[in-house]
# Entry
Amino acid sequence: MSTASLSTLPKTGLAGLKENWQSDLLSGFLVFLIALPLCLGISMASGFPPSAGIITAIIGGVLVSRLNGSFVTINGPAAGLIVVVLGAVQELGEGDAMAGYRYALAAIVVASAIQVLMGVFKAGRLSSYFPASVVHGMLAAIGIIIMAKQIHVMLGTIPEKGSSLFSTIAQIPHSLLNPNYEIAIIGFTGLAILIVWSCIKNPLLKMIPAPLVVVLVGIGLAKYFDLDHEHMYLFLPDAAILPHHEQTVGPKFLVAISDNFMSSFYFPDFSKLPTIEFWEAVISISLVGSLESLLSAMAVDKLDTYKRHSNLDRDLTAVGVGNLVSGLIGGLPMIAEIVRSSANVNNGAKTQWANFFHGTFLLLFVVLFPRLIHSIPLAALAALLVFTGFRLASPSSFAHVMGIGKEQLFMFILTIVGVLATDLLVGVAIGIIAKLIIHIIRGVKLSNLFKISFVIENKDPNTIVVSIDGAAVFSNFLALKTGLAGVEQGKAIIFQMNNAYLIDHTVMEYFHDFQHNYEDNGGSVTFVGLDQLEAFSEHPLAVRRIKA
# Structure
């Protein structure tokens, strides 16, 4: 980055508020319009009351924005945590939804304390130990689970009680053939709006958040179908091709929220603290939440117009503090959320104050207009989540991984199957173990699997040489990453790869990002000997191994 551009970086703190309040206020308002329906949908899909997601986003905006180490990220509940939170509610509650909710709050509080400790002891770098293909596989599996559960809500149907995940998926064709037609119209209309909106190029229309359009159209259709009052109907009674059994609609298909926001607060129940199930929930929430938050924060840094870099350890600490407060008063866990953060950047946000304003607008809305929230149909929110789940597990994500290499696709699919067949933690562990086995088969020595051999030395005042011997893989490159983090900016860095044996995709991806970031700050990066390594596919970041 040039000196001129450095001098124009937005100020932070109160000076930043005074300098950028107009752009941050506008962006905060637009993000609030996106966040409101997503918070409601994510909360209910997680087995929590609708208000819990809003509590989380308010804390993420008003409190965490004052503590975090990032600049334009938006903190709030995320679809990626639905699976672990719902699992905690069901496992701990044993059929009692309210008891499960309060036990899950306790798990969130303990997981938050772990997150704070991870941030304080600078454990943000531990995200390096998760191979990229395994992380993508985990997110894709989460997307599949979200779609499997929310399609039924979108159609106004209920799968058999106690159904397993695979049974819930198997019942989708039956729900498609036997929907509650009025509810399904609301759901499919919302889904169609999201698909059409994603194809629109007009910048003025793009300024209108698609989730807002889905909710407004859903409210209009709910009024037309009179969902405020329970009644029975026959859908198209004169049509010969449709079954004509009577169907029921009513307020149960609308968001149930109290008129008094203060009554939305619930407190955790720690009585399950000694159980294995409780600690499984704690580990799942802290692991998935921390990993997703770190990955999202790094992704948002790449979108930042000013190319600023978040302090990931401080960010993790701040999210942990936010989750601690959220869990104590009835909210969901939060992360640095990528979709809302991307919208924040696109809307022209410059500082953390945009996150603060988004939380403030949510607080004002739930205090002043709770009845409006009650008029939102559940099917419209389910459409938002089905669309979100599809983006996590879209065919393009499979194609992207396949383009990197066959072994990456294998890891990706293995992790997905592992998560769907067992749970998140076991599925991710299966993916990591399989990756290590593949490295061993490819000739990586056991002594090199968790320990990397490298030297960083100054060749002259302006040149730094980084020599790598043996293998550089996801499980051993943390020391190299730490060493490079302390390298002085503005130099010429030469990576000497003549003695390297194997470099995996995770490390190649890191080298790619490091090169861009370092060169953005006025330095140069050159790789010597990389052409001596054979790539496993044509992708520039594919695994590379010494030629036989």
Summary: Residues 396-444 form one domain. The chain has a mean pLDDT of 92.
